[in-house]
Amino acid sequence: MRVLSKSRFKLGLECPNKLYYTRKEIYANQKLEDPFLEALAHGGFQVEEMARMQFPGGHLIDKDKENYQQLWQRTKELLKQDNIIIYEAAFLCNGLFIRTDILRKKGDKVELIEVKSKSFDPDEDNTFIGKRGGIVKSWKPYLFDIAFQKYVMQLCFPEWEISSWIMMADKTKTASIDGLNQLFRITKKAGNRTGIKKLVTSKEELGDSVLSRTNISGIIHDIIHNKYPHDPNRTFEETIHWMKELYEKDIYANAPTSYAACKGCEFRATKEDEDTKGLRSGFKECFEKQLKWTNIEFNKPKTYEIWNFNKGGKLWAQGYYFMDELNMDLIGYEESAYRLTASERQWIQIEKEVRGDKDIFVDKEGLQKEINSFRYPLHFIDFETSSVALPFNKGRKPYEQVGFQFSHHKYDKDGRIEHATEYINNKAGYFPNFEFTRALKIALENDQGTIFRYSNHENSILNAIFVQLLESDEPDKDDLMDFIQSITHSKKDSAIKWKGERDMVDLCQLVKDFYYNPLTKGSNSIKAVLPAVLGSSEYLQNKYGRKLQDINITSKNFPGEHIWLHIENGEVINPYKMLPHLFEEWTAEEIENNISEIEDIANGGAALTAYGKLQYTDMTDKERKELSGALLKYCELDTLAMVMIYEHFVEDLVG
Question: What single string gives the DSSP state of each residue in 310-354?
């Protein structure tokens, strides 16, 4: 039975063509393998389980998950009661199907309560509706989702008076108990849809709730009655029935390609997907059907591949699909006397892609000027952090930043590279931010050397810790706040303004301002820049193709015989793919009994998940040590990657 569910409705709002490709195993789906999305989903399920406990005594409908009719029948039986609470109530009508997170019925008055892991401040205006009167873009998918639910419920029960609510993490509230997050354990062994095993039986055990709900009935009414149309050519109801027919009859929508939707399409197939897994690309099929593209067009550089290209959507709508169709006027080219402007960098990328030019661009003079301003020894730091809806510690708010780990490489003037310090909190139930800051202060306060970060994350985290210290009673808070101010700058919206004398240098910004490597394909992520740099630098290949003990580099987590750079078939293997797997030396029985259920830590999403698992108080010392070791190796590579990029600048480009 093919029904238009609320998840498919949301997918259709993104792009109706996706309704044809979803749930078909023959098509690749990149979202299924995205560790950040997986971590976010787990957090959402934790919030959902906690929200249910705010409405005790409810009936959970969690049987025959794919049997829509049985789920609907079970719901109808329960709804015969005048007063009832149902979790995951199912509604089926004319090929439309929904599950509600929480439903509370008192006679004909029904509360539809949607639970989201997003956060909000109930005292703020314009959370959902912007100052100009339209729905805030980031909230639109969620509000249309709720509108779809209400529409289907009203079809099933026209006599009901339905109010619409959204329940989320409240940024003004704090946890009143330690270990709140861990009372909702993420595990593959939970045996339910959410993958959450509850270690609590009553809401009283949770202390004061960090969730709040707000009435959005007016907004939902306005969506259903077309005040905020998604499609200017269809009403809300017409859109629903059009999508229902598409999915029910398995029809390809033939909707026009879109710059934004196509750029982020999950139904792309990588070369490995096609060659090894035998998967097809829905993305590719769309362009074959819509624009009659052949291999010639697919092999041409596209406008959606241009870095930070804000004009892309407008130009796409005008029929500019390929880089070779663009000129300086179309992209709004502007020059700067010092540092690349965004449009200069875009034009460099366009020219190199169109010409097949693989040579690196570098503004030697500008880069040299920056390098000359740096003071030795150089320090390279990277943080691993966590931000969750349900706090780990008493007194913390939803989505407060937690700095649980850092790595620090030091680069001396004589070229010696030392993995100087590192910090990790692997203790369950301990709020690490102040200890983290003390350890960072000790690591960096002994000289006036330049400190490097990659992107703005580290600056943002230290700003957040500054506020936490300001509100704390830590005895050394003033010293720690002074230290933070000395190596950072304040955020734009900060009530206290500062710019430190040792304000960290953003290595990513140096890349953007003075350097372009065609191998990055426009990406400035360190995960893209590192392999590009290694693939372009003979100096780095000669150096890092040897053992650590032979190249004047120390390591706290890798043996002296470790080799960072490997080349296969003439291509550099990304070092992040060479990180050792977890539990390699464990027996099958030990692996079966571990509680973290993590296979590898080679990206930020996995690191965030690992920290959450380290908060389990019943984790064995052996498993805690294994996870901690993997996190330390991953974070060490992050700062060594920064060192490698800097060496490339100095040794290959401006030396």
Answer: TTHHHHHHTT--BGGG--HHHHT----SSS--HHHHHHHHHHHHH
Q: What would you measure as the largest C-alpha separation in the chain, in angstroms?
A: 80
* 3-state secondary structure (DSSP) of residue 640: helix
Query: In this structure, which amino acid lies at residue 464?
Result: A
b/e per residue, 569-595, with b = 16+ CB within 10 A?
A: eeebebbbeebeebbeeeeeeeeeebe
Distances from the Cα of 477 to the Cα of 439, 466, 481, angstroms: 14, 9, 6
What single letter denotes the amino acid at residue 234?
Answer: R
Token pair, residue 360, equals 């690196």
Q: Phi and psi (nearest 5°) for 547?
A: -70, 150
Q: Specify the DSSP class assigned to residue 30.
A: G
Give the count of beta carbons closer than 10 Å to the beta carbon of residue 194: 20
Residue 180 tokens, joined? 């709140």
What 3-state DSSP class applies to 551?
coil
Per-run averaged pLDDT (10 residues), the chain, 655 residues: 94 96 95 73 89 95 79 96 97 97 97 95 91 93 97 98 97 95 86 86 94 97 96 95 97 94 94 92 96 96 96 96 97 94 97 96 96 97 95 95 97 95 95 98 97 97 98 97 98 93 98 96 94 95 95 94 91 88 80 78 82 89 93 96 97 87
Q: H or E element: which one contains 385?
A: strand 378-386
Distance CA 498, CA 488 (A): 8
Number of H helices, E strands in the chain: 24, 18
Phi-psi label, residue 207: left if phi above 0, alpha if psi -120 to 50, beta otherwise: left
Per-residue pLDDT, 36: 64
Do residues 615 and 429 touch, judged by C-beta distance below 8 A?
A: yes
Rounded Cα–Cα distance for residues 281 and 260 (Å): 18
d(CA 143, CA 149): 10
The H or E element that residue 91 is part of is strand 83-93
Query: Cα–Cα distance between 612 and 631 in angstroms, integer?
Result: 12
Q: Do the Cβ atoms of 103 and 135 come closer than 8 Å?
A: no
Kindly report whether the peptide bond that precedes residue 377 is cis, defined as omega within 30 degrees of 0: yes
CA distance 120 to 170: 5
Q: What is the DSSP letter of 161?
A: E
pLDDT recorded at residue 74: 95
Q: What pLDDT is stored for residue 155 in this prediction?
A: 98
Calculate the alpha carbon distances from 150 to 164, 220, 242, 311 in Å: 8, 8, 18, 37
Q: How far apart are CA 72 and CA 255, in angstroms?
A: 32
**Residue 288 and residue 503: Cα distance in Å, rounded?**
50
Packed helices 477-487 and 457-470: angle between N→C axes, nearest 10 degrees? 160
- The SS3 of residue 145 is helix
Q: What integer pLDDT is reported at residue 583 of this predicted model?
A: 84
Which of helix, strand or coil describes residue 600? Answer: coil
Q: Where are the beta strands (DSSP E) in 179-222?
A: 184-186, 196-198, 211-215
What pLDDT score does 66 carry?
63
pLDDT of residue 391: 95
DSSP state of 234: S
